[in-house]
Amino acid sequence: MIKEREINKYLKSVEKNIPCSKKIKKDCMQSLKLNIEDIISSDPNVTLSSLTEILGTPKAVADGFTSELDPKIIRKYKLIKNIACFTVFALLAVVTIAFLSNCIYDLTRLDYNFFLVRDLANTP
Hints:
The chain is mostly helical. The chain has two domains: 1-69; 72-124. The chain is built from five helices and no strands. The protein has helices at 4-16, 22-42, 48-55, 58-68, 71-122. The relative contact order is 0.09.
């Protein structure tokens, strides 16, 4: 008999391979859950391997859902995802540059003050 944890792992694996919005993924997952429930109700002793034989691997199931989606939706999702990743990367770069610039500024100011104090101490 298949465990609930195994079903959830299978569903998560399918879900992460579908390139679309959460709303569309939710609809796909509802459909898949109903299919799995039908399979389990017809054979309560079904295992994860037999379920995979019937439905396919999580990647194959996700590819099946993806093939039914409008290509424009997939392109839009990927574009938004790429823009979000680029934005995060750019923000990290700006923060890193600002931090390093501040560190360099503090170091140069510290060294300058050190020499200034040393020169003042040596003056009569």
